[in-house]
Amino acid sequence: MPRKREDVEREIKKLSGKMSKLKGELKNAKSRSMIKCNNCNKRTQVSKLVYLQTHWYEEPYSCTAGDRWHEGEGQFICSKCGVKNRLINRREKITDLKDYFSKVENVYEQREPYSFLREPEVFVI
Ligand SMILES: [Zn+2]
What we know:
The chain is α+β, with helices and mostly antiparallel strands. Helices cover about 20% and strands about 30% of the residues.
């Protein structure tokens, strides 16, 4: 026998409450995620780090194309040793955690998208 409208509405309300509680828990758990520095091997909670969102510039070409910025990789500076770490090629799912860093800082660098791959003294992979 089909349930009464009031009963269904009551159950939906109950489940919605549980759902937002779970979402809150997930948010807290994500902000507690630890990230390892590839230089000093120490781990820091993402909520204590700044996410550096790099951007790279595309030179203008033809009449209207190019001349714009693209979002590049994410990086962070280790709070323990001060070395800049790249967030690509990591086992942890970092893009998923971007919103849980203390803040996101946009970095604009006018150079080729992957030229920094040749700078191992600056970037630890
Ligand atoms: Zn470090």
